[in-house]
Amino acid sequence: MILKTVANVREALDGIEDEMTLMLGGFGLCGIPENAIAELVRRNVKGLTCISNNAGVDDFGLGLLLQKRQIRKMISSYVGENDEFERQMLSGELEVELTPQGTLAEKCRAAQAGIPAFFTPAGYGTEVAEGKETREFHGKMYVMERAYEADFAFVKAWKGDEAGNLIFRGTARNFNPCMCGAARITVAEVEELVPAGELPPNQIHVPGIFVKRIFQGSNYEKRIEQRTVRTK
């Protein structure tokens, strides 16, 4: 059995350089790789292209990279909670590629499966389809989308073992699993790291073959993006 454990987040991000393309898991602020993002901020790598469902908020998640102008291009589907993102986009400082949410997930999954491209009806007849091949299937028009090509994928799981097998919880399961194995190197940070073989096989969401490095994360804030409560 091949063990994937590395000592810490610094070792896990070995090889990170300027101008790389990164996938970052999570849905809103749920299940984001907080430790990996903090290390990217510390290393001050520049010119990054980031693929993520959203861009965090002003002072958390990918918003921390935006604050330091470390992201050159953002590929995402929802960006409505980040004022700094909006400012950089409108001023032309940040290149933005907005993608339908299902298409973004499928472009990750296609890369994971080694499929170079696929056809989807999402976005046909809109700006999303501009410059892309379109075809008709069974009387309906489809847009060809290419799988993503990324250098690193950073994901966060609830529990993992030393062989890289992962279990996710709740909404964190939305984008993290399809990013595993979709980049040249997949780095998983977990809340609990156990010896190989301890996870119940039928509960594993992503097998270790899709993970290159895994480490025990720490100090998770798990911030709530929008807290709504009833008035008394």
From TrEMBL:
SUPFAM superfamilies: NagB/RpiA/CoA transferase-like. It holds the Pfam family CoA_trans. SMART domains: CoA_trans (SM00882). InterPro entries: 3-oxoacid_CoA-transf_A, CoA_trans_fam_I, NagB/RpiA_transferase-like. GO terms for molecular function: transferase activity. Keywords: Transferase. PANTHER family: ACETATE COA-TRANSFERASE SUBUNIT ALPHA, KETOACID-COENZYME A TRANSFERASE. This is CoA transferase subunit A.
